[in-house]
């Protein structure tokens, strides 16, 4: 429970420059549109890109869908995130495994996989588009929007499935 304050959600991928910044922006936009109070952030399990802007292909994908993510900066997930956030939502199973492995004993955040919030897609990854073609970013965007929609419905107290 969140004691009346908006739930705090952290989206987590590997580099925090492709999928999780898109998820952060998609969630913030959808929550505003549907008037659901929520606080959103994103982080990566890896530290290679800390301080960097999102990948230019992620920026372009967001832009095509009316969102500006160029101002976001990558950061690495840390133990405090398990205490500060209500939910840590991993973009794929590998990153969910990492979160489970590094969760501190007094962490209270609930861990889940983004596509677990979509009926019929439980256990699926949002595929990492970093090493692939541009089309992978559009596919990631579609998956992210599906996951964000399901998660938002849960947060709004509506049945999501
Ligand atoms: P992301 O994509 O986890 O969606 O941000 C990646 C970004 C960078 C790398 C891998 C995935 N990398 O290996 O540097």
From TrEMBL:
EC numbers on record: 3.1.3.48
GO molecular function, one term: protein tyrosine phosphatase activity
Record has Coiled coil as a keyword: no
Family: Belongs to the low molecular weight phosphotyrosine protein phosphatase family.
Domain Phosphotyrosine protein phosphatase I: 7-154
Top-level EC class: hydrolase
UniProt-annotated catalytic positions: 13, 19, 128
Keywords recorded for this protein, A-Z: Hydrolase, Protein phosphatase
SMART domains per record: LMWPc
Official protein name in the record: protein-tyrosine-phosphatase
Native species: Rhizorhabdus histidinilytica
């Amino acid at each position: 429970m969140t004691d009346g304050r908006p739930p705090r959600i952290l989206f987590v991928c590997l580099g925090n420059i492709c999928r999780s910044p898109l998820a952060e922006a998609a969630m913030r936009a959808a929550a505003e549109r549907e008037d659901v109070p929520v606080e959103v952030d994103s982080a990566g399990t890896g530290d290679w890109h800390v301080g960097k802007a999102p990948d230019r292909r992620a920026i372009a994908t967001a832009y095509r869908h009316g969102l500006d993510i160029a101002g976001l900066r990558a950061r690495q997930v840390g133990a405090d995130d398990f205490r500060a956030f209500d939910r840590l939502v991993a973009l794929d199973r590998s990153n969910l495994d990492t979160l489970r492995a590094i969760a501190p004993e007094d962490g209270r955040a609930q861990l889940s996989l983004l596509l677990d919030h979509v009926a019929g897609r439980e256990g699926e990854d949002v595929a990492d588009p970093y090493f692939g073609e541009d089309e992978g970013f559009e596919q990631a965007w579609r998956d992210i929007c599906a996951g964000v929609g399901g998660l938002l419905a849960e947060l709004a107290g509506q049945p999501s499935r």
